Amino acid sequence: MRKLAVSILALALLVLSAVPAFGAVDQAKLKEIKALTQQMYTIKAQIVDKEVEAGVLDQTKAEKIKNAMQERQQKIQQDIDKGEFHGFKHKKSCGRKPSNDSPIPQKTE
User: Taking the CB of residue 65, how many other CB atoms lie within 10 A of it?
Assistant: First the structure.
């Protein structure tokens, strides 16, 4: 019985000591992610501007979309600065609605 208890304790200590090594975050990679997310934000903002120029979006809606994008970008930057990154979780589409010829099926109620 003692051997079993010692074995379980040793296994628990081994597992607990290995967890921090698996959870370590590569800060250099986080900096790369931060730079890439900033590039992505800049390009998306340019796309929204081009949609306004093309008449796809009105200026009010474009500003709303860009403000939501900016808030999300700031949250991502803050998380990365804290050494965290939770990926890109899909949120609301910033007010965009699919067009009638969109391949995305629309809800009918």
Answer: 21
